Structures are given as structure tokens and as C-alpha cells.
Amino acid sequence: MLKQSPTFNTPSAFSRHQPGVIHVLVTGGAGYIGSHAALRLLKENYRVTIVDNLSRGNIGAVRILQELFPEPGRLQFIYADLGDAKVVHQIFSQNAFDAVMHFAAVAYVGESTLDPLKYYHNITSNTLTVLEAMSAHGVPTLIYSSTCATYGEPEKMPITEETPQLPINPYGKAKKMAEDIILDFHKNSNMAVMILRYFNVIGSDPEGRLGEAPRPELREHGRISGACYDAARGIIPDLKVRGTDYKTTDGTCIRDYIDVTDLVDAHVKALEKSSPGKVGIYNVGTGRGRSVKEFVDACKAATGVPIKVDFLPRRPGDYAEVFSDPTKIKLELNWTAKHTDLQESLQVAWRWQKSHLNGYGSSLVKSS
């Protein structure tokens, strides 16, 4: 099923290459990270097409972007599922893309252990479909959204790009398979490929235009930051912390929390530094690990609410300690995380949460 901006089936700025204008397809651009990336690209005067099936993303984020950038030829939205190869090829045949930022993916570790086939279809198979369409239609650049979950539970910290990839859950395995497919394809291609393995994403647009609005039915699988805000708002009675017996300083998991503003900056730098035939693989993190207990304390301070915490047994598929070594991305892309104050990032996101008590509203796109 395909619903789209009125320009999709008629000749438009989106259907032809224009000197000096880079047209980027942002898959999953109605989602949390994808919408922030689209905003940054639009601010930098890129032409943007968002493709999203709204299974996890929200049309409200797209509407915000359309209001901010209403000029013809700046932004279009296509409602489509990347699992439909015929539709994907139709989109590529009717649009002149210069690059693809592939964010679209289900992304919950816990959910992946309960429904692994969904993850292999949605991540691995859909990435193959996008790659085939890019190849068939001559799109020269791919910026791929990967994850530190591909490393599993390494013996040594911090994690470098050379750390063996031994994922321990279906989410990480599906992303690792997608990476392998991309890299195998690249061996006989001149495509520019940049793979970004991110760590735990937090925060939101500092100007309050966009935020994270996950599905209520997915709360049990969601990010700890979302659960923190829900607890602070009284939507849930307490914040559940899963696992206090890990071999860490305080018994809780250690993670590297990266602000979404820094993350999308890394994507833009990757796009700017891409070149034909180049492969770049980069960790995107702060290089500092924070325990879940530290995170909870920062969340309490950010919200000003004495959130009740319920400590529970470990969640299947989780790992004790993960944080990055960002040396490579600093040297090659001149990127460094700037928003590293955990409490400040949480405060920015909390302001958006408080002013958007129902998220963006309806998640569905209306039929035209």
C-alpha cells in the first residue's frame, strides 16, 4: 500500500537530479532518530524524501518538518513498507536519489528475543531490498544505521571498530547480517558505504520541535529514558531496572549514552566524507560508560520527580557493559560528541515530553 505526497506520481524536483542539490532518501524518517536526521539535513539545504510505514514512526513528526520546510522541492513523504520490493523499486524509479540514509528498523532487544523472525525480516531482508534498489537505480551512497549490539558482550572495553562482532540477541544478529550483506555487495561495487554503529541514544531536538514518541504498547521493550519519563508523569507506577547482579561497579548495566543531536551530526559528517568506492565503519558514542543507577539518578534530577525504582531480574539478551572508543570517527570524520552532560540531555527531552503529553497525536496517515 502506497500513500504519498501529491508530487510522487508527477514530474517534480524530486524526480530529477539538480546540480548543487543532494537528494537524500531517509528511510524510517518518521521515527525518533530518522526525523531528527531529516531535520538536520533540511537545515543544511539537502532535498529530503522520507519513506516510512508508520509502524513505529509518527506522521506528526513529518508534519512538523513539512511546516518548517514548506518550500516546493524540499521535503516529500512516501507512506510505504520496505518489505514490499515492488513498491521500493517503484519509489527508486520515480525519484532521483543521490544518497540513502537507512534508519528504518525495529530496534528493541527484548522484543527481538520474543519475535526474532520479525527482526530478520524487518532489518536484514529489508536492507537487502533497499540495497538491490540502490544498485538497480544507480544510487551511489549508503549511510547505514547499525548498532553496538552487533558486538555482543566483548571481553575488553572500550569497543573499537576492530572488536569482534559476536551478537547475542536477534536484534544484533539481524544488524550484523545486514552489515555483512552490504560489505559483500560493496566488494564488486563502487558504492560509497558508511556504517555507523551507535550506542544508546537519548535526548531530543534542543529547540523542542521533535522528540521521542514510542508506541504505548511497546513500553515494556522501550528505552530506559522513555520509561523514566513515563514514571515521572505517573503513566507507570515505577521505573523498572532489570538486573542488579552484573559484574559492574554497582551491579547494574553500563552503557554509552549518545545524544541524538550528536548522532545526526555524525550522519551528516559521514555523508559529507563519503566518496565512490569508500567503506567507512564507525562507532558513534561518547567513549564513556554510565551505569543504569547513574542514569536513574540523572533522570530524577532532570525531571525533578522522586521516581520510584523497582529492581527486577535480568532481561534475556542483555549484556553487562558496553561503551565505545570513538577515536576512529574523530580522526576520520572530525566528529566528537558535544552533548555529553547526561542530565542536560535528559532535561531537553523531558521538556518535550511535558509539552507533548500525547506525543504527536495520531500515528496514522489519513487516506487522501
UniProtKB/TrEMBL annotation:
Its cofactor is NAD(+). InterPro entries: Epimerase_deHydtase, NAD(P)-bd_dom_sf, UDP_G4E. Keywords: Carbohydrate metabolism, Isomerase, NAD. It holds the Pfam family Epimerase. Its EC number is 5.1.3.-. It comes from Solanum chacoense. GO terms for biological process: galactose metabolic process. One of its GO terms (molecular function) is UDP-glucose 4-epimerase activity. Pathway: Carbohydrate metabolism; galactose metabolism. Belongs to the NAD(P)-dependent epimerase/dehydratase family. This is UDP-glucose 4-epimerase. Residues 24-285 form the NAD-dependent epimerase/dehydratase domain. The lineage of its organism: Eukaryota, Viridiplantae, Streptophyta, Embryophyta, Tracheophyta. The keyword S-adenosyl-L-methionine does not apply.
